[in-house]
Structure formats: C-alpha cells, structure tokens
Amino acid sequence: MSAIDYKKSGSILNPLKNLSFFARPAITEPLEPRRASLRYRGFHLNDWEKCVGCSTCQKVCDNAAITMVKVPELAEDPLNGVRNLRPAIDYGRCCWCALCVDLCPTGSISLSREYVHTCTDDQLSSYFMLPDPNGMHKEFFGEGWNKTAENDLVDPQRQAMNEMAPDARIANFDEIVAGYDRQQAIIEASRCVQCGMCHDACPTHMDAPEYIRAIWQDDLEEAVRQIYNTNPFAHTCGRVCTHRCETACSVGKRGEPIAIRWLKRYAVDAFTPEQIQAIVGTGDTTPTGRQVAIVGSGPAGLTAAYDLARLGHAVTVFEGLDRPGGMPRYGIPEYRLPYDKLDADIAVIEAMGVEIRCNTWIGRDITLDQLHTDYDAVLLGLGLQLGRSTRIPGSDHGGVVKAVDVLRDVTAEIPETVPASAVVIGGGNVAMDAARTLARLQRQVHGAVRVTVSALEDFEHFLADPEEVTEAREEGVEILDSRGPKACIVEDGRLVGLTTLKVLSIFDEQQRFAPKYDDGDEQMHSGEMVVEAIGQMSDTALLGEALTERLAWQRGRLQTDDDGRTSEDWLWAAGDMVRGPDVVHAVADGHRAARSIHRALAEAKMEERAS
Amino acid sequence: MRAENYEARNHPPSNEFEINFGPNHPGIEGNYALKVKVHGDEIVAARADGGYLHRGFEKLMEQRLWIQNIALVPRICVPDPAPMEVAYSMAVEQLCGLEVPQRAQWLRVLLLELSRLAAHLFTFGGHAATTGMYTPMFWGVADRDLLLDLFEELTGGRVYSIYNIPGGVRRDIPDDFLTRLSDTLDYIDSRLPDYDNLLFTNQVFVRRARDAGPVSQAQALDWGVTGPNLRATGLAFDVRRDDPYLVYDELEFDIPTEQPGDAWARTLVRRGELLQSIRILRQVIDRLPDIGGPIRAPIPNPLAWNVPAGEAYVRIESSKGELSWYVVSDGGDKPYRVHIRGPSSMHAVQVLEHLVTGCRIEDVAQIMFSLDACPPEVDR
Fold first, then answer.
1. Domains of chain A as residue ranges with CATH
2. Residue B377, SS3 per DSSP
3. Does residue B94 sit at the A interface (CB-CB below 8 Å)?
4. Tens digit of pLDDT for each residue in A35-62?
5. What pTM, to 2 d.p., does this model score?
6. Chain B 349-378, residues with CB within 8 Å of chain A CB atoms
7. Residue B203 belongs to what domain range?
C-alpha cells in the first residue's frame, strides 16, 4: 500500500488518471443465474420422511413465521412420535435466521441455495408455503444451511443416572437406581422441546411437557399437580413404567430421549404422601351416596378408586392378599420398586377416602353376587397372577415353579429353600425379574449365583428390556437365546435340570406361534429348580360359571366396551385382565372405568329423580 | 418525529425558509430527517428528527428468548450488523459465565473486521455521492459486494450474518475460505490508488470536505463523540486497543488519527482504518489455521434456557464508534431489560444539529454522511 501525503499530492488532475479505465476490458457478468454459497440461508426444505411434526421449529421461530399444517395424506403414529403436521412458512415474516434448522430435533429442515421468489399481486399467497424436499419452486437448487454437528442446538445426551454397581446390588434387594438430584433433574428437564409426543403416546396421556417444564422451573409442587392430573401411581410409574413417552420423544429421534420416567420419579420423591395429598387436594368431597366395590388393589382398581372417591362416591377396595398394591407389589421385585414407594402411592389414594379391605378374597370370603347386591357398581381390577405352564415332560414335578409364584412368595416373605442352581424358561421381563430375584437369594444363602435363563427368542428380537438383560448379566445370570425347552429332567425323584433344543423358527408362515427346533442341538442346563416364566393369566374363578358364560372373552381376556363396562350393566373391568400386563395401561384403564362408572351412576340418579 | 416540527408556524420571517432533509435522503444511511431553517444559502437553525426506523428493538428483546434475539439484533444497524451480534452474545456470555473458545474469538474478529471494511467502503461511497461524485459510490458499493460474497460463504447470509450465538459462532470457515478472503483483500488493496485518485486526493472533494462541519476535541468529548469521528479530532481512542475484547490484544494495528475534526479528517480516518482492518485480517489469515478447538461452548436447550440473574455491560468498537450493550437478566428465559448505547445517537442528533448550523445548504448532506450515523441505530 502506497503511503500518500494527501495534503500535498492532491491535485485537480488526479481523477483524470482514472480515464485509464476506458482502456481496460469491460467487466461482464455471466448470464446464467449465480449459485448461492454452500451454506446459504435460502428458502426452506423439509424432508417429510424425517419430519415428525413436533413443531419445535415453530417454537423457536422468533417471527412466528411457522404454522404447523395438517397433511391428512400422511400417516400418524403417536406411539412412535409421528404426527401428520408439517411446518408451513410465511415468508412475509421469516427472517432466514435458520434457528429452525439448528434446533430441529430430527434434522429434517434445511435451507436451500435459492435466492429469489417474486410474484404478481394476485399470487401473494405464494409467500406462504409448505416446504418439501424440492423447495420453494419445486426445482431443487441444492441444500444450503443444514444441520451439522457445529450448529446443532439439540442436546442429544441425557443426564447419566447413578446406579448401584453389580457387586453392591447383588447382595441385597435395595433399589438399584439412585434417582436424579436437583441439578441433574433441572438439566435433564431443560432438554425437553415441549412437543407433547410423550403425552400422545402415553396410555393415560400424562401431561409430561407440563411437569417437565415445572421441574425445569424448580416448581415441584406444580409438577406433582400435573402428574396427579392423570396418574395416582406416580411413584410406581416413575420407576417401572414401560415409558412409551420416551419411545415417542422427538429428541430421541437422533439422540437419547428425555428421561421422562426418572423426572417423574424425581418430582414425586421430593414429597411425603401427606404433602402430596395437600398439593392435589381431595377433589369434590360432597358425598353422592353411591357405593362402588372394586375387586383388586392393583393400579387399575386403585386408580379408579382414586377418581371415584374424588368424585364423592364411597369406594371399597377388596384385596385377597395381606397388603394392597396388586401385581406391582407381588410381581415386581423390590430392587426395582421398593415397597415403601408403592405404599406412598397407596397412602395418597387412601387419603382420598378410599377404604381398602385386605385379606378379603372375593369368591371365598364374599361372593361377587353379594357385592352386586350391596353396591351400586362393581369394578374388577384383577392382575395376571397365575403363571402358564410349558407342559413339557417333567413340568409337573414339584421343583418346577411359576415365576409369578416365586416373586409373590418373596414379597410375602414365605420361607422357601433357595436352590443352589436354577433354570428360568422365558425371555421377557418377568423371566428377568425371577432370575435376578433368585440370583440375589442365592448370593445371600449360598454365596454364589447359578441361574440360567433360556429364552425362545434370539437377542435381536428379545422381549425383555435391553437394560434388564444387561443388568441381569452383570449380576451373574447366564442368558441363552434361541433355546426351546424340551424336558425337565428328574432323576430319582429329584429335579436335576432342563434340556433345551436350538430354535430354528418361532412363528409359521401365517405368523402363528409354532416353534421349530433343531433336534440335533440339545443342551442340558443343570438346576435344582426350573422356573416357568412364559406368560400369565387371571384367576377368574370368582366370577362363577354362570357369569363367566354370560361375559364375552377373547384369548382368555375379558371383553368390555371402550369404557371398561362389561356386558353386565353393573360390572366393569379394567387393567391387566382386559389389557394385558402393564402398569400404565392399567392406570389408563382405571381412569376410563371410573369415568364410565361415574357417568352410569349419575344417569341412574337422574332416572331416580325423574321417576 | 418531534411534534413541534410539524406545527403550523405563525408568520415566519419572509427571508427564512424551512427545508426538510429527509426522512428520505441519500445523505444518511436510512430514514432520518433534518429540518433546517435557511436564510439565503445559510442554515440558521436545525432540528434533527429521528424515529422513522423505530422498531422498539430494546422492548422487543424483552419478549423473545435469549436465542431468538440473535436474529433480531443485526437489524439494529444495517451497514454494520456484526458488532450488534457480537456485543449481544458477549453480554449473554458474561451473564452466564460462558467461556468462548479461542477459535470462536478469532472468527468473531474476522467477522467484525470484514464488517468494518464493508461499512467503510459504503461510507466513502456515500460521502462522495453527497459531494456530487457518483463513481466512488458505485465503486464502493460494488467492492463491498465482494465482501458480501465472503459473508455469504462464511455465514450463509449476505447482510445479516446471524453468525454469532452466545457461546461462540455457528459454523467454522468453509474450505479454502482464507485463500478467497486473502484474494479479496489483495483486490481491495489494489483498488486504493484508484480511490485515492478519484476521491481522497481529488481537489474537488478535498476542498469541499475540508473545514466542513469541524468538531474540536473538547467538543467531541463533551458530546460523547466516539469512533472515527473522535479520532478525526486527533485523539487516539479505540476500544479495541484501550479496553481490548476478544483477541484484539494479540493483534497488531495502529489507530489512525487526523486533525482537525472536519468532514475531510473523518473520511481520512476511515481510509486509514480500512488499511488497518486489512492488516488485522491478514494476521487472522495467518493465525487462524493454527488455532484449533471447538467454535462454540455448549449452551442449554435454547427453549429452556434461564440466564442467571445479573447485569452485563459490554462495549466494542463498531465502524461508527463505541457500541455499548447493557443487558439485565432476572434469571428468566428472556432478557429483563436491554439498553443499547449506539454511537450514532450522539452523532446524528446533537452533533449534527450543531455542525450544520451556520454552514451552507450544499454542505448539509456531506456533513450528515461524514458523521457516518446509522438511523436505525439511533432509533433502535
């Protein structure tokens, strides 16, 4: 750069030096349109295959330029977190900041390398458009600003959960998962984009976005209020829920979903049952004078009891066993769901005025007909407490037991001889529960774990949750896949083990259950006990033959209308016996049945008044 | 938009006229009005009249999430938007205690200096045009366009780069970007003799600009004049050197000063700064490849981001002068209060009113432009 003394060298003739420009070649611009840069922020592109309609783009848009539009041709899939909403952009408002791209959980939105859109007065609506992968003018100009690791604003990592190490947990039944502390919970809650996919996927439609937001704002009372709107089994679901919410979570599309279940647990664990009762109140306590009997004190029965009691009905729950809680108490091991946490849920429900009568077996201590006579409505909320048998040779031996019985006896503290070695048949979560429970008992009694699980499915199609499998292995349980049970081997009246065959296929061409085995590949697994964990059913003996005959059944499950009412107008049914085994489905069912019962009772009252 | 400017006047003296410069006038980089009272060719009184570009940025920011404001803030100054983003981001970082990675700091310097270069080219052109010389204006705008190409490559936007977010920058440089930047700098460097011939040493321009709108150093300090307008009075004050931010303390550059604070001196200071910006950018080109690491510190999910309560004050040197941001957080997900002290509000109101009083009509436009005030930044 030449240094010029402007004050001296200034001359009126200086500009004339630039006349030399006339001698230079003219600058010409090429006629073809200029391509924008590789990261240009042009018009929106949206990959409809990737987009799930979570509307996060709409939330982060600072100009309210994005409207979510329903596209009826697209399929909705709430369980997998897919809505048929797609973002439409108003280019009268858009400022091309591309925050929608940076925050898109799925990475479906990008901006194109297209510069110009213009139109005549009568086409002004063309500034409002629904982007697809081809862009504004259906001519793909190439992708400009897109999602990269550099500009991605979605945090894909969930807060790690503190868990007991395998060595520490195998010696006892203490809860494995420690739960989040305040800081972890707030950070985890802050990852949520408030799309509500979790709400749609949840069987009982929990207001998860609202309670996650409340946890982020450190307002745990509000979180508990939101949780109890839809789920009085908050402590239980905060631990053992099948968390469909997390499957649907849109942050989970590329990263790890929000730990919704652990957040719920964190919120309710912060309070005692009395405090929770004070937060949620007791509902409408004006007595209606109506009486409802509920058979079974599991999640379905007690959820309905909670709702009905809050509506002013007098609710009595009959439980056949010593303690209320149903399958969560007698079927889920303590290391997953501590009894005091289940007690906390039940204490809140009892505080609503629900009476629970334990050790009262319907069909033995009181008949169902008696309930029909004494109460205005009866709800059956039975769990699946009977184990199914494989019926293989030797399975009638006394050393062959059902998993549900093993789990129930452990909870009920019925002393039993702990086998030094055991084989579990089954590959579901119940099989894992039984295996891990036995492993703990073996460790306490014998000092060493010798449990083998033989599952029909291969590991790719395994039924148990992956974390259950991992944790069981860490605790010393041996898990074998693709093994079909052949026979329980009894020698001199003593059970010595199980023989299994290699599975070739499980289903036939019509997708019916018809396992085929390789007879040449037989293995012997030694065990003093064989546990069958291949499925459960309800004990419906209380219904009696005549009523069983009148009710509708399908594959062993009682059929009801959409609201849980059976073909008998005084009888409702909810939970596992209708829906299959799952706590949160049972809760949803309990709400449905309670609504239906309340409606029926109100209608009956209207009729009484009219007559 | 002062109400009194639009009141009907009773019995004006027959030898005085009122002339409106603006609100649409090429003498300033936006919509802004200067209402002058003339006696013959002489201005006897002037009232600056802003507000035409008032969009309530400070208030709007209180309604938007911390992250959303990054799309809003560059609009506060169209010709030089980068300092707004950087200052806002730095204020949020100060509130959060975010440590900005080294590489991001260098990239911010790169963006700021490119933006300064583009802004100064624009100002030369504008100042030349207000003295009737349109070729430098076309040149200035055309050469600035080459820098906009670089902005487009680096940030995805030609004017509003929206490149900074609290914590760092959004993207690293594209492949071979530094080579193209270097080529463009060489080109602009090679153009300066042409600019000199046509403008800076052109006696038509020199004689018009000299003694137009002089400001003394004492007046400048009293009025809160900053930036090139202050340095044109001989005071070498530059926030980049006197209160260094980012990595300016690792860079070598001079602070051009001139005397005696007239329109001519102001433009010469900008010419000097153009050279210094090129010098800084060349150092960035040399150093950047050796600076590794991330370009952004992790921030929480922008939809659920509470910035700790507190207040932050950040000042940086924009092409117009000292730009200060005062941001207050009450611990929520949006700013509680934002105040922007743009350099232009001092230059375009009290200084301008004072400078044009007593000058001739034909100098009003060039005095306006030589102060390089940015009306949207005045109105905010």
1. 44-129 (3.30.70.3270), 157-281 (1.10.1060.10), 286-385+539-611 (3.50.50.60), 388-537 (3.50.50.60)
2. helix
3. no
4. 899 999 999 999 999 999 999 999 999 9
5. 0.88
6. none
7. 102-164+171-298
